[in-house]
Amino acid sequence: MEKTLKNKVVVITGGAAGIGYEIADQYLQKDSKVTILLDIDEKQGTEAAKTLCTKYGANKAVFIKCDVTKDSETVSAKIFDTYKTVDVLVNNAGIHKEKLGKKTIETNVWALIDWSLKFWEHMRTDKNGKGGTIINIASIYGYRVDQYIPIYQASKFAVMGFTKSLGHAYNYRRSGVRVVAICPGYTETNLIAEPKTWDDACSADYHAFMKKQLWQKVDSVGKAAVEVFENASSGTAWVIEGAKPIFEV
Question: Taking the domain 9-248, which CATH number applies?
Answer without folding.
Answer: 3.40.50.720
